[in-house]
Specification:
The complex is a heterodimer of chains A (71) and B (184). By secondary structure, chain A is mainly alpha-helical. Chain A contains two helices and no strands. By secondary structure, chain B is an all-alpha fold. Chain B contains nine helices and no strands. Chain B is globular, with a radius of gyration of 18 Å. At the A-B interface, α1 and α2 of A face α1, α2, α5, α6 and α8 of B.
Chain lengths: 71, 184
């Protein structure tokens, strides 16, 4: 390191940089963001529907087949 | 222990609502979406040895579903693409929480996005994936996802700005009401 101080050594150390604002702060896609809220509202409608019975049955069948195969 | 992989099955079950929403956003039709989810479940089950429990099950399932969807789309030509935008069109979000915050304009703006941008912003903003996960799901570079999301966000924000022109005042009350309405 070729650090050459350009000020007298008794000078106060440089003020620390304010922490860079990151992520989430005003992220429009974040939990409170205007766009994120709306996107999730659109998805919520589908996500809150009950899972179709045939999908549940499919999973049951698959695990049953697997259980029998492993006996 | 009567089941070989109870936690695999449980994890699949837990992933189904998010997976169905993604399938709807791609296909725009409930029947197509549910067929896609069903095929995804079968495929994932047959490939479960390649999945490590504890890693992101949703990202893995979304990748499988997306690949299935696009390979079907290639086979069927334009038929599937013609329903573009129908996802949001058929989601009848009740307009009544708050007049100014109704979602109709937002839905139209989302529908008007190019499909790759819409997919990217939904993966990040609605499904909650990281940029890295979304890139894996879409099989593209992280930078590509970021730029798609950024372009989509700009357009959506412009649409919100237009529809919410009278909305610049203090907004805490409205924002709170909207959060509650959407969180319920």
């Amino acid at each position: 390191m070729n650090y050459v101080p350009d000020r007298p050594s008794d000078d106060a150390p440089p003020a620390p940089r304010p922490p860079a604002p990151r992520g989430r702060r005003k992220d429009p896609l974040g939990p409170e963001g205007d766009i994120g809220l709306r996107l999730r509202a659109l998805y919520a409608e589908v996500e809150q529907e009950p899972i179709p019975a045939q999908l549940i049955e499919l999973l049951e069948r698959l695990s049953e087949v697997e259980r029998k195969a492993s006996e | 222990m009567t089941e070989a992989h109870p936690s695999f099955k449980a994890a699949m079950l837990a992933a189904l609502p998010a997976l169905r929403a993604f399938a709807m956003s791609l296909s725009g039709r409930h029947d197509v979406a549910d067929d896609l989810v069903q095929e995804t479940v079968m495929k994932a089950w047959s490939k479960q040895d390649s999945f490590t429990l504890g890693t992101n099950m949703n990202a893995w399932l979304f990748t499988i579903l997306r690949n299935l969807y696009y390979s079907q789309m290639r086979k069927r030509g334009r038929e599937v693409q013609d329903v573009d935008g129908a996802f949001t069109a058929r989601l009848g979000v009740p307009p009544a929480h708050d007049g100014r915050m109704d979602l109709a304009d937002f839905r139209r703006a989302l529908d008007a996005l190019p499909p790759d941008q819409r997919e990217a912003i939904l993966l990040i903003g609605a499904s909650g994936f990281s940029y890295e996960e979304a890139a894996t799901i879409c099989g593209c570079a992280v930078g590509t996802i970021k730029s798609r999301v950024s372009r989509a966000r700009t357009r959506l924000q412009a649409a919100l700005g237009v529809s919410g022109a009278s909305d610049y005042g203090p907004d805490a009350t409205t924002a709170g009401a909207v959060s509650r309405a959407f969180a319920s």
